[in-house]
Amino acid sequence: MSTVLPLPLAEPRPHVRAGQRREHESNKLAKRLRHQVGRAIADFGMIEDGDKVMVCLSGGKDSYTMLDILVQLQKKAPVKFELVAVNLDQKQPDFPEHVLPTYLESIGVAYKILEQDTYSVVTRVVPEGKTMCSLCSRLRRGALYAYAAEQGFTKIALGHHRDDLVATFFLNLFFHAKLAGMPPKLLSDDGRHVVIRPLAYVREDDISAYAEAKQFPIIPCNLCGSQENLQRKQVKKMMDAWERDSPGRIETIARALGDIRPSQLSDPQLFDFLALGRHGDGALPDAHAWLAGEPHASDET
């Protein structure tokens, strides 16, 4: 009587294994991004029941990722909210007008394309060689805010990520002598709009990997993106060097931005240094008297 041995299982082909690994990593990344965005929304109260959220879509990797993750979260969120993607066509030369409508229709997201020729204004007003970002962003913000007010949006979602928040902190520190950054949630200067940044906890490298995996139809900015002398680019190079030399440093800095100790800084508006260690009910220090060196009454003869 002969024994029939079972045939060995065929090994998966190399390209099949590689494809499975890629899919596994992609799923892990998507899960991590959903967790980080969901946590940011909860930590800062970004989205409430009944909100109508204007998702500002530029055509770059950040805003595509933000929209994609918000759509995923919307399906299982504990509150009901509306998403509308809004893009501002600034009439830059060779802007591919068909890309965003085609993409948004393919995923079934409501959208609006605004048209305003800010490109001509910026290129006419800003001298050659000067940075265009400040004026460009002001004009873009004005157009988007006006549309948000007109349509009754309760929140405006922007695609700034963790690295943007850290970079803005250093820009203010190095070039404007103040400890200020880009908050995950803010009220506009006129008090009419609540702006949220759902990607506040998300690394830029993760966004790049996610955008590549999802194959978003990226539209490059050929207005300010080509300007190499921007202060933000200088800060970005510094941060990249830090991360190469000391991996995890940017995450540590990002966490520090959420752990402020006013008593360990030097702003008398945030911490009452005058009351610290004070004894008696005497008059508060007079800066003029200290600087002028005026004698104390008891020293006069």
UniProtKB/TrEMBL annotation:
Q: Name the enzyme group at the top EC level.
A: transferase
Checking CDD domains in the record gives:
TtcA-like
The answer to whether UniProt assigns keyword Nucleotide-binding to this entry is: yes
For this UniProt record, the keywords arranged alphabetically read as follows: 4Fe-4S, ATP-binding, Cytoplasm, Iron, Iron-sulfur, Magnesium, Metal-binding, Nucleotide-binding, RNA-binding, Transferase, tRNA processing, tRNA-binding
Supply any other comment.
The thiolation reaction likely consists of two steps: a first activation step by ATP to form an adenylated intermediate of the target base of tRNA, and a second nucleophilic substitution step of the sulfur (S) atom supplied by the hydrosulfide attached to the Fe-S cluster.
Subunit comment: Homodimer.
Name used for this protein in its record: tRNA-cytidine(32) 2-sulfurtransferase
Gene behind the chain: ttcA
